[in-house]
Specification:
Layout lengths: L1 H38 L7 H12 L4 H12 L8 E8 L5 E8 L2 H14 L3 E2 L9 E10 L4 H10 L2 E6 L3 E6 L4 H9 L5 E10 L7 H15 L4 E6 L3
Antiparallel strand pairs: 1-2, 1-3, 2-8, 4-6, 4-7, 5-6
Length: about 240
Amino acid sequence: MAGHNKWSKVKHIKAKEDAKKGKLFTKAVRDITTAAKAGGGDPDTNAALRLAIERARAVSMPAENIQRAIDKATGNLKGVNYEEVTYEGYGPGGVAIMVETMTDNRNRTVANIRHAFSKAGGSLGTSGSVSWMFEKKGVITVERGEKDDEVMEVALDNGATDIKEFDEVLVIESEPADFDTLLQAIEKTGVNILESSVGLVATNTIDVDDETAEKVERLIETLEEDDDVQNVYHNME
């Protein structure tokens, strides 16, 4: 029994590690797909894609997975036609949620999205029901440290429209047209760039209590587990 218990423990640990790696891979694929979709599939001319590929390699993602994500975003997967579809809805507490998808089966995708919203106590809305509360922005998240002043100065000199300071990170926003130039300038400072993409940012946010926040976070996690989902945005404070 001792041997059996040991093996059970090993299997449990391995399962947890596999799940963790799976989540890292899923995030890496989304980052690559988003970057390639926005700026093209050539990392030499797309700084966001180059950084996304570097982050994917850092978590040991195989090269074929990386290339497949790029091909999916740029429409180069043979025999498969993907279309981009964005869904809008309200989660628990009236939190506005935008879900960007890339799918080869719209019926399957909308059924999965609707089920996730319904199960969480939310509702899928019609086109335009919540999109007016978001605007497209370039967003770069960097690790805070000794270079904070330099990074902020470089950011403001290269098109940053807003810099939000948190305990561990700086979140730098820009207009989409200035994103690549800004990203390259920040990259040259040598700071650790944690995330970088052009996406949706809420123009007005909503405060919710802890219980509601947990429900919204569970809904977001459920949506992000769907292979068709590329990005999920919300206006929860």
